[in-house]
């Protein structure tokens, strides 16, 4: 990857994180930011999605968790309310990134 494309990719991720950060804190149902309502839908989805996030995450969850991983690696806040941030940080500390999304449930 060239230096430029790496930077572009990072900018794109940062942009998504900005949207996510806004959506998490935005409680205005009439918010007119188009990306806000989109992000809110994504966050709402991951909260109620029943598909295993480890074995077979759906595309939406996969994307959001990847985004949150990126955030969590740089996050210094102990009481951050970004989705998955606390979980990811604990896992990073435990070096168990692989089992990150595991939440075994009875079938
Ligand atoms: Zn908003
Ligand atoms: Zn999902
Ligand atoms: Zn965080």
From TrEMBL:
<protein>
    <recommendedName>
        <fullName>histone acetyltransferase</fullName>
        <ecNumber>2.3.1.48</ecNumber>
    </recommendedName>
</protein>
<keyword id="KW-0808">Transferase</keyword>
<feature type="domain" description="TAZ-type">
    <location>
        <begin position="6"/>
        <end position="88"/>
    </location>
</feature>
<dbReference type="InterPro" id="IPR000197">
    <property type="entry name" value="Znf_TAZ"/>
</dbReference>
<feature type="zinc finger region" description="TAZ-type">
    <location>
        <begin position="6"/>
        <end position="88"/>
    </location>
</feature>
<keyword id="KW-0863">Zinc-finger</keyword>
<dbReference type="Pfam" id="PF02135">
    <property type="entry name" value="zf-TAZ"/>
</dbReference>
<keyword id="KW-0156">Chromatin regulator</keyword>
<dbReference type="InterPro" id="IPR013178">
    <property type="entry name" value="Histone_AcTrfase_Rtt109/CBP"/>
</dbReference>
<keyword id="KW-0862">Zinc</keyword>
<dbReference type="InterPro" id="IPR035898">
    <property type="entry name" value="TAZ_dom_sf"/>
</dbReference>
<keyword id="KW-0539">Nucleus</keyword>
<keyword id="KW-0805">Transcription regulation</keyword>
<keyword id="KW-0479">Metal-binding</keyword>
<keyword id="KW-0804">Transcription</keyword>
């Amino acid at each position: 990857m060239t230096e430029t494309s790496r930077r572009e990719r990072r900018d794109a991720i940062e942009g998504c994180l900005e949207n996510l950060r806004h959506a998490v804190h935005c409680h205005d149902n009439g918010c007119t930011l188009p990306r806000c309502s989109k992000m809110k839908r994504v966050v709402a989805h991951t909260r109620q999605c029943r598909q295993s996030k480890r074995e077979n995450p759906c595309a939406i969850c996969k994307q959001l968790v990847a985004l949150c991983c990126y955030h969590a690696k740089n996050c210094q806040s102990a009481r951050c309310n970004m989705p998955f941030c606390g979980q990811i940080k604990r896992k990073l500390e435990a070096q168990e990134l692989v089992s990150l999304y595991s939440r075994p449930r009875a079938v």
